[in-house]
Amino acid sequence: MIIPENERLVRDFVADVLNDKRYDAITEYCHEDVVMHRPGDVDEVGLDAYIEHYRHLHRAFPDFHATIEDALADGDRVGLRLALTGTHEGELLGRAPTGTSVSFSAQIIYRLSDGRIAEEWHESDRLGLLRQLSAL
Q1: Which Pfam families has this protein been placed in (predicted)?
Q2: What is the DSSP string of 32-43?
């Protein structure tokens, strides 16, 4: 099976940034004005905000791991369905660390431009995550 170039880039991004915590690689994968859209949150704009998002995620879950369950590529868009796991060892959404191992899902659509990520729309199962952390 041949994987489209845009899908390969996004798969590599997940491996390098989400799983291997290579924040320096974000500048290779993303436009400097990259935008992350998440329902209920303010859009995160620019490399610094994007990098800080992933640093915060990894502080909350030092052993965070994303597994790509499905990937779909169409033109300048790549959609992923992810299975996410980690142990809550740092502050998250105002919650103190619990030491709880969690698993939840996310769906992300990336828009690429000139071979780099320009925008992403991120939906994750926050309700399921908060339930696992006994936050509800």
Answers
A1: SnoaL (PF07366)
A2: EEEEEE-TTSPP
Give the other-Cβ count within 10 Å of 91's Cβ.
12
Note down the domain range covering 9. Answer: 5-132
The phi, psi pair for 33, rounded to 5°, reads -110, 30
- Residue 69 sits in a domain whose CATH number is 3.10.450.50
pTM: 0.92
Torsion of CA 67, 90, 20, 126, to 10 degrees: 30
pLDDT in tens, 96-133: 999 999 999 999 999 999 999 999 999 998 888 889 98
Total domains, the chain: 1
Sequence-distant (6+) residues with CB within 8 A of 38 are 44, 122, 123, 124
